[in-house]
Amino acid sequence: MIPNLAQTVAFIQKIELLLDLELFLVGGAVRDLLLGKNTKDFDFTTACIPDEIEHKIRQAGFKPYLLGKKFGTIGFKLEGDLIEITTFRHEIYKSNSRKPEVGFHSDIKYDLARRDLTINAMAISSKAEIIDLFEGQQDLERGIIRAVGDSTQRFTEDPLRMLRAIRFAGQYKFEIENATATAISSNFWRLLDISKERWIMEMDLILALRDPSLALDLFKTLGLAQVILPEILYLDLDFEQLHIYQNFWLATKLEILEIEPENVDQRWGALLSHCIKPVILLNYVRQNHQLGILSLEKLEIEVKDFVNQIEIKQLLKSEFVVKISLEQALKIGKYLKFSNQRLKTIAQYLTDKY
Ligand code: ATP
Ligand code: MG
Asked: What 3-state class would DSSP assign to 131?
């Protein structure tokens, strides 16, 4: 059932009463509620310090989860749902470090200001007030993804936010506001500052979208692919100039769409296995024309009468291309530090497909 505002407020009141603690529902749950969508997890925030939250949870007879305590988060299970409560946080990024100093604060406005996107920076109180300091509601209504505050600064603090921005744009089919998009285009290289594991965690969420096409387009056009997966940049080479009717980028996205979203490993297989194909095709044309240095103008004139679509289709289905595609997919997967299990699934998927 999709919750409405009244039900959500009743839920906040219930937990407040249970724990004797003033709470705000915050982040994704508020966004989903305002979008009329189901929520997976409930994040609450409070002025209370972590020790006090822990004490209140115990006092109410629940077992507190303390794994996130050093970041200010204490959890507990309520009727099967995981409830997480975090003290209002305030992060200070020193210019020489990307590891923020985490401080706790008594004012929710600092907690909301440290969040990534305006649509993720809203809170609801038990008095049914929506605390929206950055026009998140308006952006939700207009379908806009916008960083909270100065986008360049926010993406420098944590470059993962750039991937989150394209993920949410893809998920809701929203547009990325100009300044935010420009900041991504000029700061994509900062992804080099964070670990491959963090890239992949976010890329997995992108590939798990029902239709990841838009997010993948943005991944490519806003430059992020240059760091994470430069191989996909060749997929949209315009072969029509060469009278070859192959659109590898479209074919890749369609293949991904045919795989169920929960099979993220297979979707990676589809994405990675196409990467080498444009290179093979260009090489084929070059070899057949005994061309030395590739010049597109020269190719266009010389290739016109020569290209045989059937021959190209056969080439792309040949054992040679299938094997190289698999090898290259695994090579990229290893570079991205995929688990052996994931590499195995990719190999299986690609072997079964041909
Ligand atoms: P989802 O539906 O994918 O869970 P979510 O918004 O709940 O979406 P989470 O990753 O669970 O996303 O994060 C919870 C909240 O924490 C976000 O709504 C956002 O306010 C904040 N947040 C998460 N990651 C970041 C980040 N890298 N920088 C700033 N704020 C973040
Ligand atoms: Mg969440």
From this structure: strand
